[in-house]
Amino acid sequence: MGDFLNHASQGVRDGFDYNGGGYSVGTDRRIMPHAILGLGFGDLYGKMRGRSFAGDIDQQTRIGMLYGGWYRNLNKNNAVRVNVNSSLQLNARWRTYAGYEFEGRNKATAHRFNAGVSYAY
C-alpha cells in the first residue's frame, strides 16, 4: 500500500532500502438516502535496512476504522458534504484519531473545512 523509495548513501549519510506491503479491507452501507456508514481494517508492514551502517528497522501497524458520510445536492449548482471518521492504530503504542470534514460546493468553487484530534498512549 503506497509507494516507497530507496536512497543511496552520500558521504557519511547512510542510505536505505525499504521493502514493505500491506492490505486493507472494508465495507460500507447506505443507511439513509444521502448517508453511508463504513468499517475497515488494515495491516501495514515493512523493513528498512541501512546501506552503509548496521541499521535495520521493522515496522508493523494495524488499524481499524469507522467512518460515515452525508452528501446532499441543495440545488442544480450547490451541494453540501459532511464526513466523520475515527480510527484506532496499534504500532509501537496505541493511537486514536477522530476527525470530521465539512465541504460546501458550487459549480465554480469548493470550500472545505477539516479538523481532527489524535491521542497516543
What would the keywords be for this entry?
single chain, 121 residues, mainly beta, 6-stranded antiparallel sheet
Give a quick summary of the entry.
The chain is built from no helices and 6 strands. With 121 residues, the chain is an all-beta fold. Strand 2 and strand 3 form a beta hairpin.
What report would you give on this structure?
This protein is mainly β. Helix content is about 0%, strand content about 75%. The chain is built from no helices and 6 strands. The protein has strands spanning about 15-30, 35-50, 55-75, 80-90, 95-105, 110-120. It has a 6-stranded antiparallel sheet with strand order 1-2-3-4-5-6, with no helix packed on it. The chain is elongated. The model has no long low-confidence stretch (mean pLDDT about 80).
Topology of this structure?
Elements: E1 16-32, E2 35-50, E3 56-73, E4 78-90, E5 94-106, E6 110-120
Antiparallel strand pairs: 1-2, 2-3, 3-4, 4-5, 5-6
Low-confidence stretches: none
* Strand count: 6
Sheet with the most strands? Answer: 6 strands, antiparallel
| Terminal Cα span | 26 Å
